[in-house]
Amino acid sequence: MSPSAPSKDPAARAAELREIVEHHRKRYYEQDDPEIGDDEYDALFRELETLEQEHPELARPDSPTQRVGGAPLSKLEKVRHEQPMLSLANARTAEELQGWVDRMTTHLGREGITDPDFRFVVEPKIDGLAMSLRYEDGLLVRAATRGDGEVGEDVTHNVRTIPDVPLHVEGAPAVLEVRGEVYIKLEDFRRVNEKRAARGESTFMNPRNSAAGAIRQLDPKAAKERPLSFWAYGVGVVAASAAGEAEQEGVQGGTAAGVGEVLGVSGHHGTLLWLKEHGFPVNEDVSVVASVDDAVAACERWAERRDRLAFEIDGVVLKVDDFELQRRLGAVGRDPRWAIAWKFAPRTAVTLLKEVIWSVGKFGDLHPYASLEPVNVSGVTVSQATLHNEEDLARKDVRPGDRVIVLRAGDVIPQVISPAPHEAEREDRGPKPAPPALCPSCKHPTEKPEDSVFTRCPNRGRCPGQQWQLLRHYVSRGAMDIEGLGEKQVAQLLDKGLVRNAADLYDLTAEQLLELEGYGEVSANRVIAAIDASKERPFARVLFGVGIEEVGEITGRNLAARFRTIDALRAATPEQLAATPGVGEKMARIIHERLQDPAVGEVFDRLRAAGLQLEVPQTEGDAGDNTLLEGLTVVLTGTLPSLTREDATQRLLAAGARVTSSVSKKTGVVVAGEAAGSKLEKAERLGVPVLDEDGLQRLLREGPSVLEPVGGEDETHPDGVAPDAARDPEGDAGVDPDAPPAD
Ligand code: IVH
Fold first, then answer.
1. Of 343, 368, 402, which marks where a domain is finished?
2. Which of 194, 457, 532, 556 has the most CB atoms around it within 10 Å of its CB?
3. How far does the centroid of ligand 1 lie from the alpha carbon of residue 85, in Å?
4. Is the CB of 235 under 6 A from ligand 1?
């Protein structure tokens, strides 16, 4: 946007701001290429909001401010769909697909069309909720759920909060109904669950449920907490003029040819392009094929990509492209003849829930697990599954002896979803499983704090279950990284009474290890050497490793950077702790309380006596260094093996980097984990360096030099100028756009 002096007249300024904000919203959400920072955008947005509040006559329904949502509703209104929202017949094999094409050919033959020219549009079947968006004169006037296909519910207030749903469509016909799927990206889903778990709230079972719940919220602010996305996959009612709408009739309950005429397209693929051109998000990987063989191959490609996508899909949809053929084919019952869903092998299975087992976590939280009759779920035998927490368990109402539905998806731990159909009606069901009155590990009476979804074992320090969790965390790679000690070895040491806490590790001798099963002289000495080497880990890691409630890796770093010594940290008041970046008041109180615990104090004293680093050396600037990555713009995508998104963000921010959410040419580096989707693809396309978690750790230690291409230091560009490092005003250069990813 070219900058010019802002208008003084409120009406003109409001119009100007609407245009500017909308422009930047598009750059961000639709083109993935923001021109301004989040702060600047927020300032413009707030200016518009204030102006509209001061001059209510200037408010307009398509203003970007209207996305934020107004007052909560008391109930959702029913909406009758002008054209029913249809469903899809299924196919699972190449033969079934061929059968579908044969049936269409026969049907068309009866209509006098021989040898039809079938082209099929292949689209992902997104696992979300079908949505109808109605635009009148280009303005979004109503969004409705599918409901039973005939009558849905008005959820306009929530759909307005979805950033990729346009509120205004330039060049739209008088009436336009866009259909598509509202869904939640896996990344957003995980973030929502992480936040809820951190607040002690119950987590959502899967993205679809989370999206479905969000869209039916009465309060749009509650919906906004669960960031929703939208994908357009078709058009319902269209009319060039309001009067024209009444004349519609035809296949989808409306006329496909009508869509073609009004939008000036001849088929479904053209419609998708039209939607894309008019600002709707359309899946980029939609393809067109001309034979059953190619269609099957395309479906198999989607199945193969399924676990790497940024969102859940449960199949592929195949649609006959040509509108005239669609019209001739019509529908049978609720299913159009011209479309079919290729369903993937189910990732759920039904099996017997033998027992609910409770395990104790690092800080005493009790977690329920399901012990299952082993069952094959999409190729993998599953005999244990998570039941999340006791609230989830109660809500699902699964009981030992029930047949239950088990889901295994992507990289997440298998989970029990619900009882199998009709199981809950059985008369001979066992009692509801309740959290145990005694800790399953130490038999200490358990307790349930009011503000938590977890019953806990309060026997800190002495409960062997908690000791094991704390120790296996201490030796783990992300913490003190003691090679040769894993969860099994730690359990062995605890069993033999050789250790109880981290400090005890430093009193171990090779002779003691030799008496344990599985150790020879070499391995025993190696472990002792590894324990010794851990004395060199910086103070921040010790803080994280010891396991203090609320002290994750980042908080450990921030606390170390701020207080520099364990003595200063233990002397800090809750108020002083709360002044640390990322530490809120509640966190500060918990950390303070834990640090005052004499048992925790004793561990630190003994660790210091053993020679561990319990302060930041004078010369070490790293933990407090907030300039190392100054000017570098970083995008995180996918799930990293050990760092949470929040931790990685905080570490980058602490080192001075900017963390943004969309990839553009200005992005300095993309850090990609498991199930990284379109952002990774875009980075690769733009030549933005990509790092994994190890690479990120190196970046945080060594700075942007790790992004330099190997051996690239002497290289000059053909024009004789060094790669733009010296010239780039953004300062995120030193990154050769043609360089291969750094890892
Ligand atoms: S087309 C006339 N396309 O699947 C066909 N549906 O069983 C109507 N879905 O309720 C739907 N992705 O919620 C279509 N690319 C896609 C889809 C899709 C997901 C859902 C949709 C619908 C259900 C059909």
1. 343
2. 457
3. 9
4. no
The Cα–Cα gap between 173 and 166 comes to: 15
Query: Is residue 601 assigned to a domain?
Result: no
- Do residues 140 and 162 lie in contact, with contact meaning Cβ atoms separated by under 8 Å? no
Place of tokens 């003084």: 8
Does residue 287 share a domain with residue 144? yes
Give catalytic status of residue 78 as yes or no: no
Whether the predicted pLDDT of 720 surpasses 50: no
Among residues 328, 257, 327, the alpha carbon closest in space to that of 109 is found at 328
Show the domain range for 55: 10-68
How many C-beta neighbours within 10 Å does residue 611 have?
11
d(Cα 543, Cα 614) in Å, to the nearest integer?
A: 8
3-class secondary structure, 351: strand
Structurally, how many domains does the chain consist of?
A: 5
256 or 428, greater pLDDT? 428
Q: Is 402 in the pocket of ligand 1 (CB under 6 A)?
A: no
Q: How far is CA 271 from the centre of its chain?
A: 30
Query: 126 C-alpha vs ligand 1 centroid, how far in Å?
Result: 8
Number of Cα atoms under 13 Å in the Cβ half of residue 245 = 17
Q: What is the mean pLDDT of residues 684-703?
A: 90
> Based on C-alpha coordinates, what's the Rg of the chain?
30
CATH of the domain at 50: 1.10.287.610
Q: Is the CB of 125 under 6 A from ligand 1?
A: yes
Is the shortest distance between the CB of 334 and ligand 1 below 6 Å?
A: no
pLDDT digits (tens, 9 = 90+) for 304-329: 898 889 998 989 999 999 999 999 99
Q: Cα(125) to centroid of ligand 1, in Å?
A: 6
Q: Pairing mode, if any, of strands 129-136 and 175-183?
A: antiparallel
Inter-CA distances, 16 with 166, 286, 566, 593, Å:
18, 36, 55, 53
What is the whole-number distance in angstroms between the Cα of residue 303 and the centre of ligand 1? Answer: 17
Q: Where are the alpha helices (DSSP H) in 170-291?
A: 186-198, 207-215, 220-224, 242-245, 256-263, 268-277
Residues 489-547: pLDDT tens digits?
A: 999 999 999 999 999 999 999 999 999 999 999 999 999 999 999 999 999 999 999 99
Distance 88 CA to ligand 1 centre (A): 7
- Whose alpha carbon is nearest atom 18 of ligand 1? 125
Mutate to test the pocket of ligand 1, among 181, 235, 288, 302 (most ligand atoms within 8 A of CB): 181
Q: Ligand 1 pocket, 130 CB below 6 A?
A: yes
Catalytically annotated residue among 125, 185, 224, 362 = 125
Residue-wise over 425-464: b if at least 16 C-beta within 10 A, else e? eeeeeeeebebbeebbbbebebeeeeebbbbbbebbeebb
Question: Within this chain, do residues 218 and 181 fall inside the same structural domain, yes or no?
Answer: yes
What does the pLDDT read at residue 711?
41
Q: Which atom of ligand 1 is nearest to the CA of 129?
A: 13
Instruction: Please tell me the number of Cα atoms within 13 Å of 463 on its side-chain side.
Output: 26
Question: Is 230 in the same domain as 365?
Answer: no
- Residues paired with 232 in a beta bridge: 180
How confident is the model at residue 714, as a pLDDT? 32
pTM reported for the whole predicted model: 0.55
